[in-house]
Amino acid sequence: MSGQRSGTSRGWTRSAGRLAMSGVETRIAHWRRQGWLNEVDGHLARMLARRHPAMGVGAALAAALLSQALEEGHTCLPLAQIAATLTARGEATSVQGLQDQLWASAAVVAPEHAAERPAPMVLDAAQRLALLRWHRAESRIAAELVRRAGALTEVDEERAQQMLARLFPESPDAPNLQKTAAALALCKRLLILCGGPGTGKTWTLARMLALCSALTAGQLRVALAAPTGRAAMRLGEAIREAAAAMSEDIGRQALPEAETLHRLLGYQPQTGRFRRNADNPLPADLVIVDEASMVDDLLLDALLAAAPAGCRLVLCGDPGQLPPVAPGSLLHSLAGLGTPGYAPALRAACARLCGRDMPEPPDAAAANLLNECRITLKKAHRFDETSGISALAAALQHADPAAELKRVLSRSWPDITLLGTETARSGLPAILLEMFRPLYRAVTAAEAMAAFARCRVLCALREGPWGVAGINRLCRELLRRQGLVPARQEWYRGLPVLIQHNAHDLRLYNGDTGMLWPDENAVLRAWFAAEGGLRPFPPAALPAWQPAWAITVHKAQGAEFDDVVLVLPEGDNPLLTRELLYTAVTRARKRLVLVAGPEALERSAVRQLQRYSALGDLLSAFGKPPIFIDSTSPNE
């Protein structure tokens, strides 16, 4: 009889599973028809429902929404957010009801049980749902950062004092935060160096390199990297320029070529893995990563796995900028830990090295090891008091950004031009022609690339008359009327191009900018910047590209231009955020033209980008009973 009941039970379970699966299929099909899910999100929900027959419609759709959230940069979603979305779309449920469904589905596990009983999704104590892969990545990131932030390192204090005094002249009226940052880099194995435009981050990095090189008798092994090719090239150029201005010799071996993080770690596109990892670490004593705000969680996880346990790691960036396109928000999560503070032993060590005491944390109980590793450079050296660009960037970091923005823009500035969208219809063409005309006066490809590198139009949107597509059409038409470009040719002299997809065999990557220009034999080539020169390609060999007079603000991250025209759309748009406006403003060095109405500027200043992530809580858990940290390798 017991065997008969068991068979009946199994049959009932299969039948119930088929019924549940049928309901999931029906609702996913409905959501797809409504445009609420794409094919990938729907596929994930169906796959999980097939593997977990007890999964109800709500739990399956929660998985689909979680997949969708990854595309928007979130690594998790609060159950309250999921339940609200389900209810708004006719799938009425409560947070408790959704939680019960998820636990009943067996597709969810608590973080503390994820190692011995892995499941596709993790539901933590804060009622945040995450895919297991992202939970593991954020857990490893938090664990590794805290580990590297630990014990003080041994320093030859007498030699270090002498070098610091030579490299960082002390100001009598204020602490030299650049000098303090270099001292921190000697005392700790982790440094998070933050600061806005022109605050001397790269200047500090160059002197930090000279300092560390001198203290290792020129035997320092250094890796320089950034998330994008443009940012890596800019980092290398800036380090070389700063090094050339110093009397101290950094040392030939200590100044390698700056690389993208993918190239540094040996990304293998066939497998999606990295050649460098914990079993095959980077041959480096010092790893410096610029534009850290652009580094997503999976890339950061891979970097921390590949960086040797004993090496120094310096992460440099501006927390006010846009986060990476892929999920992740490291600098924002670190900023959420509160004010940097320094324990007595570290404060004493830095005081001996710098000859000046460091400030104590305002709330010693709130200090943690990661706060000891953070320092923010605040003094802008690039701009003076007449700079509207600097004042505008500062306004966007103010406690009341909308009011401060209004106050700044009520003044007249020599480096800012403000055009409303109506005024721009008549005034923008002349500005664009003035900005791009020097490009078409160039004789060589190198001259053309240099001229184009000084200016860019940045847009919040890709499509529409005020988006990248519309502004690029306007630029070509204006140049055609001047006889500077042809009307119908696909490829022609003076066409700037932006690569849209990676071509690993050509070493051309998404975001790289080039220029079509004849070579010495009058053959049209596509020229791209390379270490020490330019690389030519046949235009037909290029991967997917688009014209690059105008690019999105996201694509401009990691670059700076003398002249920037920023175009914001009319009406409201959720993409208009403080981070986007700040990132765009800080791309300009000498001149900024704002094509935007006052409403668009105010909305951008007020609206902050929100990303759901558990990383901040994992980082802040230092010193408390530890949240479970999953040590599974990132390649698993």
UniProtKB/TrEMBL annotation:
InterPro entries to which the protein is assigned, alphabetical: AAA+_ATPase (IPR003593), Coronavir_polyprotein_1ab (IPR050534), P-loop_NTPase (IPR027417), RecD (IPR006344), RecD_N (IPR049550), RecD_N_sf (IPR041851), UvrD-like_helicase_C (IPR027785)
A Pfam short name: UvrD_C_2
GO terms classed as biological process: DNA recombination; double-strand break repair
Superkingdom of source: Bacteria
Keywords: ATP-binding, DNA damage, DNA repair, DNA-binding, Exonuclease, Helicase, Hydrolase, Isomerase, Nuclease, Nucleotide-binding
GO terms of molecular function: ATP binding; DNA binding; exodeoxyribonuclease V activity; single-stranded DNA helicase activity
SUPFAM superfamilies: P-loop containing nucleoside triphosphate hydrolases (SSF52540)
Cellular component terms per the entry's GO annotation: exodeoxyribonuclease V complex
NCBIfam families cross-referenced by the UniProt entry: recD
Designated name of the protein: Exodeoxyribonuclease V subunit alpha
Lineage: Bacteria, Pseudomonadati, Thermodesulfobacteriota, Desulfobulbia, Desulfobulbales
